[in-house]
UniProtKB/TrEMBL annotation:
This is Malate dehydrogenase. The lineage of its organism: Bacteria, Pseudomonadati, Pseudomonadota, Alphaproteobacteria, Hyphomicrobiales. Gene3D superfamilies: Lactate dehydrogenase/glycoside hydrolase, family 4, C-terminal, NAD(P)-binding Rossmann-like Domain. The active site is at 176 (proton acceptor). One of its GO terms (biological process) is tricarboxylic acid cycle.
Amino acid sequence: MARKKIALIGSGQIGGTLAHLAALKDLGDIVLFDIVDGVPQGKALDLSQSAPVEGYDAAITGTSKYEDLKDSDVVIVTAGVPRKPGMSRDDLLEINLKVMEQVGAGIAKYAPNAFVICITNPLDAMVWALQKFSGLPTNKVIGMAGVLDSSRFVHFIADELGVSVQDVNAFVMGGHGDTMVPLARYSTVAGIPLTDIVKMGWMSKEKLEEIIQRTRDGGAEIVGLLKTGSAFYAPATSAIAMAESYLKDKKRVLPAAVYLNGEFGVKGTYVGVPVVIGAGGAEKVVEISLNSAEQKAFDKSVGAVEGLIEACKKIAPKLA
Ligand code: APR
């Protein structure tokens, strides 16, 4: 049986980390793609030279030709520009929308059967545009944000309580921006909801609010520290978890930006919700019940994403 093929469009900070993780996890052969000639080839060679030490057999190649994406099983898209200090994810809209048009055409031509995971920001609008530009079915094009935002939330909770990250499960819905909705009621420590953790007096309400805000600002905090780019280790590892669930048909329930067709009362928009990821791609949206405050926060987040999608339609009328 042939190995699976994973194409990484964009070979920058996240792209290179994705390639390393995919190789270490033996997910398949890897093609790094970038418009800057030399970068994907250089990273591929460097990663190939670490194979003898790690013992992985994946073939890792670099290219600037879309035809090398042929028959990819998974395509992960990070092509575009990242944030600089002071920029919001939304500031990237116009530049990265043009990138999605090129990338969408390349995927449509050479990898129409792939499972596509978009990471490029502003995430929810870019994955929406990528699906439109590529014409691939909506269940095969999803965005990575919720796993990352939830992982940030988990890290902060575990760190605050002094417990293992393994016993914390956290859950963030909505758009990947300032309006994201970390859900305390559905986030747990060994099965105990955070709301009960507060009632028990293990964490103060104020501390929980602080952690929720720090989660929302998680990306900006790292941009502010790095100054020359944005986060890449945690985004890459989050996307690999999604790719692995698809390739191994694990059917993990992960928060991700998926196309909603009436679920949660939303139609025609990509936004972060829990979804089962398996061999069928985004197989099932899990419609959890939201209380009125959660629903209000989610609606506000959906409104922000819809605003970005409207802005995309103005820039690229063919998306309308
Ligand atoms: N086609 C292919 N690759 C492109 C294109 C394009 N049209 N335009 C830019 N690229 C490449 C760049 O040459 C660069 O190597 O995309 C890569 C992006 O890498 P980085 O600048 O290192 O950015 P990274 O940190 O990997 O983030 C990528 O993910 O989280 C988001 O906001 C982030 O949108 C950004 C994306």
